[in-house]
Amino acid sequence: MNINYPLPDEIIRILQENRNKTNKYQHLIRPGGYMPPHIDLLIDAITALSLGKNILLKGPTGAGKTKFAETLSNLFQQPMFSVNCSVDLDAESLLGFKTLSYQGEKQMIEFVPGPVINAMTNGTFLYIDEVNMAKPETLPLINGVLDYRRTITNPFTNEIITASEGFGVIAAINEGYIGTVPLNEALKNRFIVLEIPYIEGAQLKQLIETNSKLNDETLTNYFVKLSSDLIEAVTQGKLSEDAASIRALLDACDLSVYIPPKRAVLRAIVDKLDEDREKEFVLNLAETYF
């Protein structure tokens, strides 16, 4: 079923008028969408994108950055092309590639556009995930796309491409992970930065109810409390951020419908950790609830 959303400026007005009334703006977000812990986060993201700014979602793994990007795309009623960064990311992964094709019996070279050019020509959002995983020499290829010019010279066709109206860029970053590199200032200055915290409390409970198969309220409350303890342990430096991933918690909730919840925590959270000390810590926490 298609949902007709208000225009972004109307969304901002609704949010501003109902800052302290969560139930008054929840209808704007599709079931399963991202409900930010602070309404100002949603207002600021929509405002920046409405003004043609790029936004950088910065926060721990599993905090909901990708889900937030998808929610913003839905609110603006447009699809989103995605780039998943890695050390192997190159110009072809970003812009597209040439391939052989046939027109009748005649052999031709055809250019197949990549996510950046697709988003630009279609006037939609471009989502760049884990932007700091890319090699430092790769992303400057799209500097012109990210600033006021909104243009790029396609190195494969020499065509100058200017973004259509509606084009916008959302990027996400996980800091301090193996394989990541600090963003250079030229790239960072092209973004409005939004810090994405973990979702906790009533909002996490709602997220579990709408995004997992678990419908046992008692178990749901225990998972919410477990998540709070894990986040606190991460804050105190006792655990790595992976342990408090909301994505991993939702996996545990799904598994707990079919297997004992303690074993679900083992499979979805504990076994992803590297250090025995951390594994034991999380298992002990799970033991107190399950």
TrEMBL record:
<dbReference type="Pfam" id="PF07728">
    <property type="entry name" value="AAA_5"/>
</dbReference>
<comment type="similarity">
    <text>Belongs to the CbbQ/NirQ/NorQ/GpvN family.</text>
</comment>
<protein>
    <recommendedName>
        <fullName>AAA+ ATPase domain-containing protein</fullName>
    </recommendedName>
</protein>
<dbReference type="InterPro" id="IPR050764">
    <property type="entry name" value="CbbQ/NirQ/NorQ/GpvN"/>
</dbReference>
<feature type="domain" description="AAA+ ATPase">
    <location>
        <begin position="51"/>
        <end position="197"/>
    </location>
</feature>
<dbReference type="InterPro" id="IPR027417">
    <property type="entry name" value="P-loop_NTPase"/>
</dbReference>
<dbReference type="InterPro" id="IPR001270">
    <property type="entry name" value="ClpA/B"/>
</dbReference>
<dbReference type="GO" id="GO:0005524">
    <property type="term" value="F:ATP binding"/>
</dbReference>
<dbReference type="GO" id="GO:0016887">
    <property type="term" value="F:ATP hydrolysis activity"/>
</dbReference>
<dbReference type="InterPro" id="IPR003593">
    <property type="entry name" value="AAA+_ATPase"/>
</dbReference>
<dbReference type="InterPro" id="IPR011704">
    <property type="entry name" value="ATPase_dyneun-rel_AAA"/>
</dbReference>
